Amino acid sequence: MNRFLSFSLFVSMALIVGCDSSSDPAIEAAKVQVRFEIEGLSPLQDGFHYQGWAKVGFEFFATPSFNIDENGSYTSTAGQLIQNSFIFPVDIADASVVFITIEDKRDADEFPSETVVLAGDVVGSSVVLSSSHILAVGSDFSGQTGSFMLMTESDGDPTNETSGVWFTTGSTGNLAAGLSLPALPDGWTYEGWVENGSLLLSTGAFITNAGHDLGRPYSLPDVPPFPGEDFLINAPAGVTFPPDLGGGTVFITVEPFPDDTADSYGIRIMSGAIPASPAAVTPFTLTVDRTGPTGTATIF
């Protein structure tokens, strides 16, 4: 599903300039604008929404909540088309950091969530926004490598071994973690995926390189203690299990937590090809395949 888009966000606020009692009663307005030029930001679902933030001293100031649709148009949280201009409650000309968060539908406070999508330090009047900023995901994953294997460890059936994906290396009875990904900040998880033509299946969200992932809806109970999935039971509508994964692609994304949708979010970090006639219990390589939102902001 292509959820990428480009957009420009203009944020304006008016600062009232004081005058003495003998001056003209007309109010002079000094304007501060923040313009975002962003590519790759994904529309959100199920009541989740975005907010822009500016950090001024030790305080945070937010734009009103907003979302974007598949056409790149701005919408309110009620789904109505809105203008791309928002008002900050104070002058943000002295902001040190500008960032964008994902807020869930229960959001009711004045503080940003832990799920920071993009952030950047203000240098002069310019900001380079990146998910690798320390306030956001915090890594660009450069230099990362990993591996995955095709096997179905939960059922003991040797005839369907290429219908499961596990982020491991080694051999049967001697498995080891196939990933060495850095720990993510609160508000984010990793998630594995396998794609083959129109087939897209999640192998489950996970936090650590070893240990069970956060869900195993398609596997039988006896699974190895690593992220991955056997695709054997509870097939989604329109999918037949066990699937033929030969010729497909395995990839890993970084996902918001809590997540707004069962689809993959727009931060993809690693991928690896499955051969057309793959061997079971054989490590295949994952390499960095980085896609995700990037952009700039200008304060003026």
Per-chain topology:
Blueprint: E1 6-17, E2 28-39, E3 49-56, E4 59-62, E5 67-68, E6 74-75, E7 85-86, E8 97-103, E9 116-123, E10 126-130, E11 145-150, E12 164-166, E13 168-171, E14 174-177, E15 188-196, E16 199-206, E17 228-230, E18 249-256, E19 267-273, E20 284-291, E21 294-299
Parallel strand pairs: 1-7
Antiparallel strand pairs: 1-2, 2-21, 3-4, 3-8, 5-6, 8-9, 9-10, 10-21, 11-12, 11-20, 12-17, 13-14, 15-16, 15-18, 18-19, 19-20
Would you report the number of β strands?
Answer: 21
The structural domain count equals 2
Distance linking N and C termini:
36 Å
In round numbers, the mean pLDDT is: 86
Oligomeric grouping of the chains:
single chain
Taken as a percent bin, the fraction of beta residues is 35-45%
User: What would you call the structural class?
Assistant: mainly beta
Rg (C-alpha, Å): 23 Å
Unreliable residue runs? 1-31
Globally, the shape reads elongated
Order of helices and strands: EEEEEEEEEEEEEEEEEEEEE
Strand order of the largest sheet: 4-3-8-9-10-21-2-1-7
For the sheet with most strands, the description reads: 9 strands, mixed
The total of helices stands at: 0
Helix content: under 10%
Would you kindly provide a brief summary of this structure?
This protein has 300 residues and is mostly beta strands. The protein has strands spanning 6-17, 28-39, 49-56, 59-62, 67-68, 74-75, 85-86, 97-103, 116-123, 126-130, 145-150, 164-166, 168-171, 174-177, 188-196, 199-206, 228-230, 249-256, 267-273, 284-291, 294-299. A hairpin with a 5-residue loop joins strand 5 and strand 6.
